[in-house]
Amino acid sequence: MNRNKVIDARYRLSRETGTIVKDWGGRLPIALIYPNSYYIGMSNLGIHAIYSLLNSYQNVVCERAFWEKENEDRQVPALNLESQRPLADFPVLAFSISYELDYFNIVHILKASGIPLYAAERDERHPLVIAGGPCITANPMPLAPFFDCLCIGEAETILPAMLPVLAEGVKGKRQELLKTLASLPGVYAPQAYEGTPVVRQWTRNLDDFPVHSAVLTRDTELGDLYLIEVERGCHRGCRFCLVSTAFRPMRCRSIDSLLAQAELGLQYRKRLGLVGPAVFDYPRFEELLTRLQQMGAEISVSSLRIKPLSSIALNEMAKGGARTIALAPEAGSQRLRQVIKKSISEDDILAAMDKVAGQNIKQLKLYFMIGLPTETDADIEEIVTLTLKCKAILDRQPGVSRITLSIAPFVPKAGTPFQWLGMEQASTLNRRLALLKNNLLPRGLQLKCESVAWSQVQAVLARGDTKLAEVLASVAEVSLSGWRQAIEQCHLDIDRYLQGWNTTEELPWAMLDPGIKPGHLELELKRALS
Questions:
Q1: CA 380 from centroid of its chain's CA atoms
Q2: Residues 184, 176: Cα–Cα separation, whole Å
Q3: R_g (Cα) of the chain, nearest Å
Q4: pLDDT at 7
Q5: Which pLDDT belongs to residue 108?
Q6: Does the model's pTM come out above 0.85?
Q7: Which of 48, 122, 314, 383 is 20 to 30 A off residue 526, Cα-Cα?
């Protein structure tokens, strides 16, 4: 056992509030693994939700593990925080996967822990390795050879049926256990799959499962906030966005439930973080803010909408000390916003700027994508024009220090109307980034641009099939050169995953039933391109 890792784990635990420690005797130990750093993972509300849910079962003990960069450099196995045990000691390893580029870390975690990487190479001597999360719900195939089973949908609905099966069968014959797991709704067990579509599972009543910060620590990105999930899903249907399909339908918690969670949270933090992809669409949003203000809470909201942009919410955030406001026009031109079904106009955007200018906000972040379907250089010029109009509005008010543009290449995602489309050529994307920089940096604007090359890797993994597992297994160093060497070693034509596909060909994730009417995504694609 690595002494430094144990010391580090104990130090982190000493700075936490809400940690759950259970004796292993007579219980099913599950390692909940977030394949990225503690700093990032402990700001992921999904980890808190699953940790709390699993530990609510008397016969289950759930402990957390993360993956730090130095682990990869030194090939040090990950340890669970609560007991500092190695992962190989656990009968079940449960990965929560939110980001495609974390796939590399999953491979390192299993290898460094001495656990056979491929599920077919594991038997009763090894942990059962399972996974869930947005990436898995959209397309589990690039990781399928590594996992015994994958959860398609929301944990609150899948786990109650899965846990008794695990508790009873995890010490028995592996193939019998996999066959039983494969029969459960929302569970895809690749080695026991018999061809029946795996139906995405979702929770009907969110109030049955309150989701808020379970473990509080200052050693994380959102350490000063007590996080509360307000709603789940989104009804707006932006054609590039996975949320509208993977988490449909939109569901809201009752205001009484939210206030009860807030009352608990205010015992630990003065600031409450309201979380959800469409928080501003909560039907009683302004009433909720008023009630929280009366309780003495300061408010932070995860997702501000340009339309409607609540003046009350802005004011509450400003009073609560918010220094940054983030808004997402996504595209500069009205034509392109219509293509992606972003139902806002330039007038809406500029009206939102007027509201922001009235607050003492130090920084405004504007999110744009480049490489969107049908995009031309003229659309990039529209980003420049729109940004300068926003700057002119904010410059009229003292106190707004700067605008930062966050620029990300468009990555087509499985389960969206754009799943058949390819990714723009790297040369075109880099040229358009240069166009933005040349026109905006001299005007005093800051740009934060995601790597074009890594975005292409993300696109390959997002729409990939099982052939990519061999590539992931072959990556010796997590770098672009290491990725390219692994592709060459595996003789895989990577362009296949970056190009557009015909809507008549079978998709790698065709065994999934996302609960969407047949033909809906293709119809939305046709509407976009028309």
A1: 27
A2: 13
A3: 23
A4: 79
A5: 95
A6: yes
A7: 383
Q: Which of 348, 354, 357, 300 is nearest to 328 (CA)?
A: 348
| pLDDT for res 140 | 98
Of the candidates 280, 274, 268, the one whose C-alpha atom is nearest the C-alpha of residue 292 is: 274
Is the peptide bond between 308 and the residue preceding it cis, with omega within 30 degrees of 0? yes
The candidate with the shortest Cα–Cα distance to 390, out of 427, 440, 460, 339, is: 440
| Closest of 342, 324, 317 to residue 332, by C-alpha | 342
The residue ranges of DSSP E strands in 331-378, in sequence order, are 363-370
Query: Under DSSP, is residue 168 helix (H, G, I), strand (E, B) or coil?
Result: helix
Could you give the count of Cα atoms lying within 13 Å of 16 in the half-sphere of its Cβ?
21
Is the bond leading into 249 cis (omega within 30 degrees of zero)? yes
In this prediction, residue 469 carries a pLDDT of 98
> What pLDDT score does 400 carry?
61
Nearest-angstrom CA–CA distance, 132 and 210:
19
Q: What is the pLDDT of residue 312?
A: 78
CATH class of 3-199: alpha beta
Sign, CA torsion 314/316/319/320: negative
Query: pLDDT below 70 — which residues of the chain?
Result: 1-2, 71-75, 320-321, 399-401
The domains of the chain are located at 3-199
Give the whole-angstrom CA distance, residue 61 versus residue 27.
6
Angle among Cα 139, 342, 443 to the nearest 5 degrees reads 110
Dist CA 525 CA 303 (whole Å): 26
Residue 306 · residue 352 · CB < 8 Å: yes
Nearest Cα neighbor of 413 from 242, 530, 288, 274 is 242
With tokens 């005007």, the residue in question is: 443
Cα maximum dimension of the chain: 71
